[in-house]
Design brief:
429 residues; alpha+beta; Immunoglobulin-like; 4 domains; 4-stranded antiparallel sheet; 3-stranded mixed sheet; 7 helices
Length: 429
């Protein structure tokens, strides 16, 4: 009997399956003219053909072992190559963050199987077994690649975790440091009291005691803080705006002492007339500074001016207070010559500048700093200025110096570099 598939001959005509290739023989065709197939490639062989029209092998030649397996293995091998190529090689695996999880690898059944022979049962065909083995190998390779990708992703994540933890730890420490620094800054507005006054030229130097139990030994960084000094009648006699943000007030056990400077635009009482025991102080946050702060003087902190309207009001009140309190000193000058240092009226022009109350009082403070005996008078209150019918609605500043004669008084004016329009000899009686 000759095999319908590979052409192998054997003696038993009742044998149903070829003992070489395992192909099932067509029943009832033993000894009959059966269709023949090339023993090398399996292509159909027509009667009378000496060579296979597909592969050129001689008809009836014994199949070689390598050739017998060639038809069955070529297709799976090609499929295997295509399947393997569908999986990116390890060297081209994208970064871990973008690699799809292993679950997305196509299942094994998605791999197409090689076309099976219509005469051979899959369970018993050697080529079918090889196909299954190859498919299993492909699936195993895919699983290995997926495992490598997953391992690489986990390893990358684990490598980054310490650095990420270290960064978070550093950030946590920085935040704690900032919180600790903030906790050392006091937010309570302190109280203040005046413990002493002095002068540096025409600048008022106030020694101020600050207290705030809540501040303990921490710093206070108030910004735009208006500090005012009031007299016993609750009138403001000094006021300026200070910035403690750049130069904080450092407390120790809730207390500290600072020296504060007030320029002639910022105080309205002669230093010698300030009674520290009867004064009070007010500390206010959120003030609006008028211009830049003055420079520090002899270690005392300089501040900015308050609003022009407030300076004008405090200066007018100060002029009235000064005139009233200097009346007794002026009375003692009626019998002796003295000198007049200026006469000023609100709204008059002096050296091209219109005079306001703050300008007049500023000049009073500057001259009083040089001549401590100087006194301020309202000209209309004295016969010396009104007896000839002249207007006398102006302030006059007298040096308070006593002279033996009017000529001596005039000589004093020249000796102190006063001009003829600035200094003159007067006798108040």
């Amino acid at each position: 009997m000759r095999c319908d598939r590979c052409g192998f001959e054997w003696d038993d005509d009742d044998e149903r399956f070829c003992s070489r290739c395992g192909a099932e023989q067509m029943p009832g065709n033993a000894g009959a003219a059966r269709p023949r197939f090339c023993s090398s490639c399996g292509s159909p062989i027509e009667p009378g053909m000496r060579f296979c029209s597909a592969c050129g092998s001689p008809v009836g030649a014994e199949p070689q072992a390598s050739q017998a397996t060639q038809p069955d293995s070529s297709a799976p091998a090609a499929l295997a190559a295509q399947s393997v190529q569908a999986v990116p090689p390890a060297a081209t695996v994208p970064p871990a963050a973008t690699v799809p999880p292993a679950a997305t690898v196509p299942p094994a059944q998605a791999v197409p199987s090689a076309p099976s022979d219509q005469y051979a049962p899959a369970a018993q065909s050697p080529s079918s077994g090889r196909k299954k083995t190859l498919v299993i190998a492909i699936v195993a390779m895919i699983a290995i690649v997926a495992g490598l990708v997953a391992w690489n992703f986990l390893a990358h994540t684990n490598d980054e975790t310490p650095a990420r933890n270290e960064t978070m730890s550093s950030q946590g420490k920085t935040a704690k440091s900032k919180t600790s620094e903030q906790s050392k800054t006091c937010t309570t507005t302190p109280d203040a009291s005046l413990s002493g006054v002095s002068s540096s030229g025409s600048t008022l130097i106030a020694t101020v005691d600050f207290s705030a139990d809540a501040c303990d030994s921490n710093a206070w960084k108030g910004k735009d803080v208006k500090i005012s000094i009031k007299d016993s009648d609750n009138e403001v006699i000094a006021s300026a705006v200070y910035d403690f943000a750049s130069k904080p007030i450092q407390f120790k056990n809730g207390e500290t002492t600072l020296k504060m400077a007030f320029t002639t635009n910022q105080y309205w009482r002669a230093v010698s007339r300030i009674e520290t025991g009867s004064t009070s102080m007010v500390v206010q946050k959120g003030a609006s500074p008028n211009g830049k702060p003055a420079t520090d003087v002899d270690g005392a902190r300089g501040g900015a001016n308050i609003a022009d309207s407030d300076m004008e009001r405090y200066a007018q009140l100060a002029l009235s207070w000064q005139v009233s309190n200097d009346e007794s000193a002026i009375s003692s000058l009626h019998d002796v010559p003295t000198t007049q240092l200026f006469s000023r009226k609100y709204g008059m022009e002096v050296d091209g500048k219109t005079q306001h109350y703050r300008d007049i009082y500023k000049q009073y403070l500057e001259l009083h700093a040089k001549w401590p005996n100087a006194v301020l008078a309202w000209a209309a209150d004295y016969d010396y200025y009104t007896r000839y019918g002249h207007e006398a609605d102006y302030y006059v500043l007298l040096s308070g110096e006593r002279f033996d004669s009017v000529s001596d008084a005039r000589s004093w004016c020249s000796a102190n570099a006063f001009g003829p329009n600035d200094c003159m000899a007067v006798q108040m009686k």
